[in-house]
Amino acid sequence: MIVLRRLLAPSAAAALAAVAVVVTIGLFIVPPDRLQGQVERIMYVHVPAAWIAYLAFFVTFAASVRYLWRRDLAADRLAAASAEVGLVFTAVAIVTGSIWGKATWGIWWDWDPRLTTTALLLVIYMGYVLVRASIVDRVRRARAGAVIGIVGFANVPIVHFSVLWWRSLHQPPTIIQPGDPTIGDVLLAELLASVLAYTLLFLYLLNRRLELERARDEAELALLERS
Amino acid sequence: MTDIAFVAGAYLAALGALGVYAATLGRRLRAARSAQAAIERRREVEAEAEAEARTLPQVR
After folding, report:
1. pLDDT at B60
2. Which residues 19-38 of B have a C-beta within 8 angstroms of A?
3. Distance CA A79, CA A133 (A)
4. Within 10 A of B15 (CB to CB), how many other CB atoms are there?
5. Model ipTM value
6. pTM for the full model?
7. Eight-class DSSP state of B59
8. In whole angstroms, what is the distance from residue A142 CA to residue A89 CA?
9. Cα angle vertex A111, ends A85, B3, to 5°?
10. Within 10 Å of residue A104's Cβ, how many Cβ atoms?
11. Residue A154: closest CA among A50, A55, A57, A87
12. Which residues of B touch A205 (CB under 8 A)?
């Protein structure tokens, strides 16, 4: 139980150490790719960022369902916290993807299905954060957030499978796809280790953001009691 | 630009963004906690003043 709690709420030092290790391995130890050369190293930060964005928005989706079902404000706080952290990871995925695109395709951006649906994902969750920030009433804010958190998540599978459903400049999925992963063992091990390390960082940030949401709720409640 | 510059740029952008977000989160959390403490202090002062008013002799 304690191990699980430690894993779900890692310390800043643990998250930083894990990220430092995978960054060092990804930049200096893993061999360059046969086809892409050194540029392929961007994968160890781009792919984890994209996967963690999916994970964060799934947490928002699940917590939003729980809020609408049970009217549980703790679930609403989790949904809000996860959406904001997911937004940061989506932005990281877009920026690193754009740099990788320039290095391999020769362009920073293209309106291809994967890139367009990812940009839409960013806009949806920016909308989520803005809508929440604009509603003063606590219950209305939670309800509106939950609806966007559930409807917005429909875009996540579209983003992931867009490269299979439509013709795309972006490469198809290498791991979450029918059949074996289309990646060498060493590269795959570093990629999975990176996903794990950035997941620890995500959990650390999520817990901090959750603390902030709790502190704000308590302050709001205290102000309401005074008035 | 060389491949190394692209890789360095991507890592700097990613780790920089996450670092800035973590630092901002820390600042926001400190601000929220100090606001919470100020509300709490004010509530205590008001409660004390109310208690004091109750103990004063009533003048008719």
Report:
1. 59
2. 21-22, 25-26, 28-29, 32-33, 35-36
3. 14
4. 16
5. 0.90
6. 0.91
7. P
8. 23
9. 75
10. 18
11. A57
12. 18, 21-22, 25
